[in-house]
TrEMBL record, chain A:
Compartment(s) of residence: Cell membrane
Name of protein: Ribose transport system permease protein
KW Nuclease (keyword) present: no
Pfam families with a match to the protein in the record: BPD_transp_2
GO molecular function terms listed in the Swiss-Prot or TrEMBL record: transmembrane transporter activity
Protein keywords: Cell membrane, Membrane, Transmembrane, Transmembrane helix
Membrane topology: Multi-pass membrane protein
Protein species of origin: Kaistia hirudinis
GO cellular component: plasma membrane
Membrane-spanning intervals of the chain: 7-26, 38-59, 66-84, 90-110, 117-136, 156-178, 208-229, 241-258, 265-283, 289-307
From TrEMBL, chain B:
Pfam families referenced in this protein's UniProt entry, alphabetically: ABC_tran
Family annotation (PANTHER family): CARBOHYDRATE TRANSPORT ATP-BINDING PROTEIN MG119-RELATED (PTHR43790), D-ALLOSE IMPORT ATP-BINDING PROTEIN ALSA-RELATED (PTHR43790:SF3)
Similarity-based family: Belongs to the ABC transporter superfamily.
Lineage: Bacteria, Pseudomonadati, Pseudomonadota, Alphaproteobacteria, Hyphomicrobiales
Protein's name according to its UniProt entry: Ribose transport system ATP-binding protein
A molecular function GO annotation: ATP hydrolysis activity
Source organism per UniProt: Kaistia hirudinis
Membrane topology per record: Peripheral membrane protein
Length: 319, 504
């Protein structure tokens, strides 16, 4: 039992369950198929965004450019299909490559110059966004094929969106990476103690580049999914990702200095944010307050993490 | 002669403007514990970095098992069989014991699957070899410091090291834990391991080492010499080129003087119980104890950083309650020279003037909060001059000065603030012998001139040089007090007895 309580996902799971039950009790429409579909779609796309940041948090850095990379991948995906008529799967692969390149560039410059990730990704945020606006002239690409639109908006087995399938695969793969694959453990090791990792034969620059590459790919996937969902290639895709990308991992108990993230708890963090956003809508609360609530949620989560940390230290001291 | 496992022959290393090592040699035989000694700045850490592959030597050669080797980096040296347990903790806190031990093995292939069952089984084997009863799946962050140390040794052993280099392994261990470690090292030696043991604690070196290499000013003061018949004083002579000298200062009697600081029955929020301590006008009271005994924490409690939960604290005879460090400095004129001058004492990237003036800004600022460099300068300069801080100008960045000069600025800062009591924590760590003697004279003069000092140091000779009375702390309690007669043998024995009094 004690182990359960101490697990990262326990608190968020409790909050999620209470929120779901509470919402369902107050508003029966909350569990309607349509609403469940909307919730799951939000969970998929926001999950990708959160994971994109989570990988970088794991290595003890931050990536301010997740939104810019995702946005660039999104408009590339839509643009390739509209302007050159590239088939959707190929366009998606190319867009993923763009995300990969963006991430590798971030990682390369961080590892090579030793400048903090904050500064490098702040600069690359501006560059990627600038390229985005240069290509689109701030105008959306409307020519998204019907098949893509359908993929982002139809369901199977009742309320389950088709998008859930690729996203679920990515989520499981990320869990496997961070818990079972050498590369994932190396990312966490570098985040936990860079010096010790280097002395244990881990190549820190290579690991940093790999983490940013994965982050770029995840951001691109989120961008592509959002194009399918919105049915247009909006140049503004990615602009509002930043807060969410940090909020979910932090709610999931991630340590911002690195070395510890939880895939399950981060996903629950995404769910909590999605449910609360929905709640505001269902209860006719000003949607512009969402940001305020999100900010409060981050503070609360950080507070809880800090409290748990202090408690662990105390119990260590006593023993 | 036993089989030679590792040898560094005529190694030199130069840095711009400095020669760190010149023609230094060390020879390691199978089944021995070899002490590597030297003062700070003697070149010890440079030699360690050469042996572990971090630096490449500018001259000389390294031999492992008789073969000439060149390490291209730390990983290379590790792969060749140099196991290194560095001074700073070197484990991934959130990872399990097993995974930490296997980290090196798992770093080879990024896409390799991590098999926890195998990792734990393998780890269990090494832990068992060290008689360690730890479940390999425990996260390292839940272990005590001593256990972490042993896990690091297990990790180094698991890499099938031919040479095991331990840098200050006992720095954060209790005497009992250190004994366990020594037992283990002896057993490893008897099984044929070659161990390099780096320590500042000469008693330990005398107790467990078979051979010794001492460095002085980047040269061999002695090379791979047998420890048979070598005593503590011999080692000191080798390290500093002369015997340890306790200056011939007259004993001072401060019994009748008024008490400046008086703690009676004090308990603190971080665990001190029933602490009684008096510092009188014009004296230096030494607070001795092992790392983790609670000395720095007591100092910080006096400074108001941790709450005093029971008992009374009197300053100049009046009971006080200090709620914050700011209050201690500004209202009660207490000064604290931190043990960690780089982290807590000085702002390295700021100038000498800004650092020395930081504690008086509030006093000097005009009513509107304006503060000019000139006002600060007039206040601070006399003390900078008095302490003979060697700096090209007051605008010099403190980070560019030597350790000794940095420490003088930390002291000057408090003198400028006009403290009534100065708490000095490990004042000479990382400072060369000459500056050390100078700082000692300085602290002595200060106390003579009326600023009583509470001195915290783990350096026994320093304690016996400076303190008028020595109070011994153990496990957050005062375990006794002795008046310092400056007789090194008698005093160190007395202190050690007080430390081990309740441990036994």
């Amino acid at each position: 039992m004690d182990r359960l309580v101490r697990a990262d996902w326990f608190g968020p799971l409790l909050v999620t369950l209470v929120a779901v039950i509470g919402m369902a009790a107050f508003s029966p429409s909350f569990l309607s198929p349509l609403n469940v579909q909307v919730l799951l779609l939000a969970l998929c796309i926001n999950g990708l965004i959160a994971f994109s940041q989570m990988i970088i948090i794991a290595i003890g850095q931050m990536n301010l450019s997740v939104g810019a990379i995702g946005g660039l991948a999104a408009i590339s995906f839509a643009g390739l299909m509209e302007v050159w008529g590239v088939p959707a799967p190929l366009a998606a692969i190319l867009a993923i490559c763009i995300g990969l390149i963006g991430g590798v560039l971030n990682g390369f410059f961080i590892a090579w110059t030793g400048i903090s990730a904050f500064v490098i990704t702040l600069a690359s945020l501006s560059i990627f966004k600038g390229i985005n606006l240069g290509i689109t002239r701030a105008q959306p690409f409307y020519g998204v094929p019907e098949s893509v639109k359908a993929f982002g908006n139809t369901t199977f087995l009742g309320p389950l969106p088709w998008l859930l399938i690729p996203c679920a695969i990515v989520f499981v793969a990320t869990w496997y990476l961070l818990n079972r694959l050498s590369l994932g453990r190396q990312i966490l090791a570098v985040g936990g103690n860079e010096h010790a990792s280097a002395l244990s034969g881990i190549s820190v620059p290579r690991t940093v580049i790999a983490a940013h590459a994965i982050s770029g790919v995840l951001a691109a996937l989120a961008g592509i999914a959002l194009v399918a969902r919105l049915q247009i290639g909006q140049p503004t895709i990615g602009d509002d990702w930043l807060i969410l990308s940090f909020a979910a991992p932090v709610i999931g108990g991630a340590v911002l200095s690195g070395g510890h993230v939880s895939v399950t708890a981060t996903l629950l963090g995404v769910a909590i944010v999605a449910i609360i956003t929905q709640a505001l809508v269902l209860f006719h609360i000003d949607p512009f307050l969402v940001q305020v609530v999100l900010g409060g949620l981050i503070l609360w989560a950080v507070g809880v993490n800090r409290w748990r940390e202090v408690r662990v230290q105390r119990s260590l001291k006593r023993s | 002669m036993a089989e030679v496992v590792f040898e560094a022959r005529g190694v030199s290393k130069y840095f711009p403007g400095v020669k760190a090592l010149e023609n230094v040699s060390i020879t390691l035989t199978k089944g021995s514990i070899h002490a590597l000694l030297g003062e700070n700045g003697a070149g010890k850490s440079t030699l360690i970095k050469i042996i572990t592959g971090v630096y490449r030597p500018d001259g000389g050669e390294l031999f492992l098992d008789g073969k000439n080797v060149r390490f291209s980096g730390a990983r290379d040296a590790m792969g060749a069989g140099i196991g290194f347990v560095p001074q700073e903790r070197n484990l991934i806190p959130r990872f399990s014991v097993g995974e930490n031990i296997a980290l090196e093995a798992n770093s080879a292939h990024p896409l390799k699957r991590i098999d926890y069952a195998t990792i734990n089984a393998e780890a269990r084997r090494w832990l068992k070899m060290l008689d360690l009863d730890i479940d390999p799946s425990t996260p390292v962050s839940q272990l005590s410091v001593a256990k972490m140390q042993l896990v690091e040794i297990a990790k180094a052993l698991s890499q099938r090291s031919k040479v095991l280099l331990l840098d200050e392994p006992t720095a954060s261990l209790s005497p009992h834990e250190a004994d366990v470690l020594f037992g283990l090292l002896r057993r490893l030696r008897d099984d044929g391991a070659s161990i390099i043991f780096v320590s500042h604690k000469l008693e330990e070196v005398v107790a467990i080492c078979d051979t010794v290499t001492v460095l002085r000013d980047g040269n061999n003061a002695c090379e791979s010499r047998s420890m048979a018949g070598v005593g503590r004083q011999d080692l000191v002579r080798l390290m500093i080129g002369r015997s340890e000298q306790i200056p011939e200062w007259p004993e001072r009697d401060s019994i009748g003087k008024p008490a400046v600081l008086e703690l009676s029955g004090v308990s603190t929020a971080i665990g001190h119980r029933d602490v009684n301590l008096t510092v009188r006008d014009g004296e230096i009271v030494g607070l001795y104890g092992l790392v983790g005994a609670g000395r720095t924490e007591l100092a910080k409690s006096i400074m108001g950083a941790f709450a005093i939960t029971a008992g009374t604290m009197k300053l100049g005879g009046k009971p006080v309650r200090i709620a914050s460090v700011s209050e201690a400095i500004h209202q009660h004129r207490l000064g604290y020279v931190s043990e960690d001058r780089k982290q807590e004492g000085l702002i390295l990237m700021h100038s000498v003037l800004e650092n020395a003036g930081i504690a008086v800004w509030r006093k000097l600022a005009s009513r509107l909060g304006f503060l000019t460099d000139r006002t600060v300068r007039t206040k601070v300069l006399p003390f900078i001059n008095k302490l003979e801080v060697k700096t090209p100008s007051l605008e010099q960045t403190v980070g560019n000065l030597s350790g000794g000069n940095q420490q003088k600025i930390s002291v000057a800062k408090w003198l400028a603030a006009g403290t009534q009591l100065l708490i000095v924590d490990e004042p000479t760590v990382g400072i060369d012998i000459k500056s050390k003697a100078y700082l000692h004279q300085l602290l002595r003069d200060l106390s003579e001139a009326g600023t009583p000092i509470l001195l915290i140091t783990s350096d026994m000779p320093e304690m016996i040089t400076l303190a008028d009375r020595i109070v011994v702390m153990n496990d957050y309690r005062i375990s006794g007090e002795i008046t310092n007669t400056r007789d090194y043998g008698a005093m160190s024995e007395g202190i050690m007895q007080l430390i081990h009094a309740d441990a036994a």
